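seq:
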Amino acid sequence: MSNNGIKKVVFRGAHKKGVLINPIMRKIKFLIFFYMTVFFVSCNIQVQRLALHPENPHYFIFRGKPVVLIGSTEHYGAVINLDFDYVAYLDQLAAGGLNITRTFTGIYREQKTSFGITNNTLAPDSGRYICPWAQSNQPGYINGGNKYDLSRWDNAYFKRLKDFIAQAGKRGIIVELDLFSNYYSNQQWKWSPLYHANNINGIGKVDDHKEVLSLKHPEILIVQESMVKKIVDELHNFDNLYYEVCNEPYFGDIDALEAWEQHMTEIIAKAEKGYKNKHLISQNIANYKKVVKNPNPNVSIFNFHYARPPETIKLNYGLNKPIGDNETGFKGTFDYPYRAEAWDFLIAGGALYNNLDYSFTTGHEDGTFHFPKTQPGGGGIVLRNQLKILKDFINNLDFIHMKPANELIKEFLADSSTVRVLAKPGETYAIYINRFVGDKSILSRRLPRSATMQMELPAASYSLEWMDVETGNIVKTEKVIHPGGMKQILSPEYMLDILLRIKKTL
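struct:
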């Protein structure tokens, strides 16, 4: 015993040096170590989920790594269409190196003739549609089968939904789950389980589809709220998921829709309040472009359709949140416009691009369906390969420390072309030159052109690497020693678009 009556303990291996540790101090050190371990493990768990990157919230972090989301998605019916083999579909996305898909919950569905889409996955055959609610024993659903009972959940639906997200997670794919969609006409509304003729609960006696996504009908609102709470509860453990409140809510009565969307956003946030790790919430802002005013603090992602870079991003970059282009189309069935939109958007500072891909249908879940030229968009394996080139390029950049920097281009001379710059000034620059600019005749002419620009660069040695974005091939490289100030750069000849990467070497 020591003089103070406390027994001293000799650490094994330390006794030769006479290191004596008081057991109270030993316990304190153990507790400090324990709680620090719990803290760091907790932090690690948090960053496993899709989240805003802590260093640069314009981008994402997923499973501990910074990530830009790039996809080419079937028409949102993967879960609600029982004939769709989503495992084969997800295998194809993963094989193509893509990492996001978009799907609907089933509260909205379409018909075979909707929007001129051939083999529309969002229009299941009779008897092959599944949604959150169980069917009753009373016949009368508009597309065959029994009416729905809005007081009972369909366990088979939630099993399928969870398996879809789990299978996506195994492949490193993020799922954007759109909880609601605008009803574009009374035809779409009259096929919904919430329409009164399709359920046994007497709910949904509304003749105007524009009133469904509003606060005007409490009986409908209660069903909508219950669905959100149920889905959030079922999916709270998934790390590869974010919620979009509503697909294209900006059609119809704008004021009513905005109030309803804000309300539903709050419902999502409150439903997740009891869970340690929250999912990101997205708002679909507009087609093309719009300034986001008074953003809801619960919204972390601002998505646009058919985005017009760089305006879409420039108008909203100050939000310090990811800006996405999560649906494309209406530029024909050829690949180039969608490839160009993707490069244009991401080099302009976007964080997410998702092409609407009509080559995915039931029976062609590998994305090999040869759709007619009447489709409202494109898709296919060639385009997906081009998007993989983009994804690999972006994710090999230090994009977390880069930002849009078009101001560095002081002069740009090119035939009907635009230029975008993403830069970590003085270190790395990604410069995308795009020739399309709405002139479809370029696609048939495919006459080569070149571009000249004056660019401001600090004094350093640089490597310049030109890449053909259609093939991923490097077409020209050079090394320069720049004294600082303006640098004149001449591109090699290109057909439609080309990329320049400038990297500091010394």
